Amino acid sequence: MREITKEQFSTNSNIDGRRIDKAMEDIVDRANAVEKRDLDKRFVQVQYCGGFTPNVGLTADNASLPFMPELNGSAPANEYRVKGTRKFSQSTYTSSLIYTATHFFNKPVTIIGVNVNLMTGGTDFTNDFLYGEGAVSDTGKADGQDSDDMTLSICVDNPFLPEKRELGSEVYHRHGFTVRSHRFNQSVTSAAADMAPSTKPPSSSNPIPAMAGIVVDDHDLNVPLPRGARVRLNIVIPNYSDLSSDVSGWGEADGSLPWNSQVMSWTLTVLEGVE
Predict the structure, then answer these.
(1) Which of 70, 75, 231, 271 reaches 20 to 30 Å from 163, CA-CA?
(2) Alpha carbon 230 to chain centroid distance?
(3) Are residues 62 and 132 located together in one domain of the fold?
(4) Do 105 and 217 meet the contact criterion of CB atoms below 8 Å apart?
(5) Maximum mean pLDDT: which of 17-31, 91-105, 258-272
(6) Where in the sequence is the domain holding 27, given as residue range(s)?
């Protein structure tokens, strides 16, 4: 009540028409000019989704799109597209490939979740997320050791110089983590036909492959973003295709390509204010 009017009424105080009229005027004035602190801010969950299904067998120069090289060629600015991507314990430099999804928020939002799926299976998508025999000389890792050469990041561009990558702010950064610690796979038993008509049962000539892969699901992040934020979700994978030895499941000497080794999808979950 004290937020609305200074007139206070109690058992031991006098009440007259003038004070009542003044209190009623204060209530009307407050109702006609509601302050922001009087409103309960409501948010709605919004999910932005994307992904990439490789065109297996395509080897043209632009076959890696939308993945771009980490090094931005001979550009005078922004030599590196993303911060903090150098692989741990690496003695021989190898570049990375970066997938970027950009979003612009004209009003304040809060990032609450990031989900990245890397699905493997069948004869085409064969990434095992393990280092190979050539990893010892390149990364200091042992043959068969879990891969830790993937980076996930969310960067907010500088509001004054948005095109300068080095001035951007990293608000979410996953680097050097054990990728296989987020692994999923199907049951080891044979799949049962639970639909009618059955779709490609395991006994058919073209069965559904046993799917597996990686699911990185970070939630309850609560990362506030200001109005006018330009946000970049970056998925960074290693590029070992220029090496002659078997270094990693991402891209090996047998000719497999890092962007063709899995099917990728992602979801960015934010809270947006209700108008």
Answers:
(1) 271
(2) 14
(3) yes
(4) no
(5) 258-272
(6) 1-39
